[in-house]
Write a structure and sequence with these properties.
9 helices, 0% strand, mainly alpha, 75% helix, globular
Length: 169
């Protein structure tokens, strides 16, 4: 019975939708922390500066990791400042990290579908991941870009030869 459910094509989509709903529900019960308030304030200020047609380089704003704040600031131009939008963006980065990790496990490490989903479950259920996903910290987007870099390196045609060499010799 379990094999019939796991062999269906939509199982992976359902898996990630369930985790998305879990992360959304966790974001409803969170409390904003000091650094998170500063990051959101920086994003709001970046949005205001960009609306005036200026670049943020002239201001001492977002000096502590500005790329994620710049992305959220650009979104805030269209939506207005919102903690929910910042949190939702972080949740989308978290789910995207899981998708990239799933592809690394299934395509490059040749894990079966069930083991790849279990690997993503281990990633998603770690304490740090559960703590930082429903917030506006930059750790989850940083993890996403690290996993995306690893995936793009592994996706090169010559990498399989070197990966086999380093893993088995």
């Amino acid at each position: 019975m379990l094999k019939k459910v796991l062999n269906k094509k939509n199982t992976t989509y359902i898996f990630f939708i369930i985790w998305f709903l879990l992360f959304i529900s966790l974001s409803l019960f969170r409390d904003s922390r000091l650094d998170e308030n500063i990051y959101i304030g920086d994003s709001v200020e970046i949005a205001n500066i960009l609306q005036r047609g200026e670049w943020i380089g002239n201001y001492g704003i977002g000096l502590h990791g500005f790329l994620n704040k710049l992305f959220i600031g650009a979104i805030f131009i269209f939506t207005g400042p919102s903690v929910f939008i910042a949190t939702l963006t972080n949740i989308v980065f978290a789910i995207s990290s899981g998708i990239v990790f799933y592809k690394i496990l299934s395509k490059h490490l040749n894990f079966s579908k069930i083991y790849s989903l279990l690997g993503v479950t281990l990633l998603f259920s770690s304490y740090q991941f559960l703590t930082y996903t429903p917030t506006f910290y930059r750790d989850i987007p940083a993890l996403f870009f690290v996993l995306l870099t690893i995936y793009s390196i592994l996706d090169q045609p010559f990498t399989e030869i070197y990966l086999h060499y380093f893993l088995f010799f």
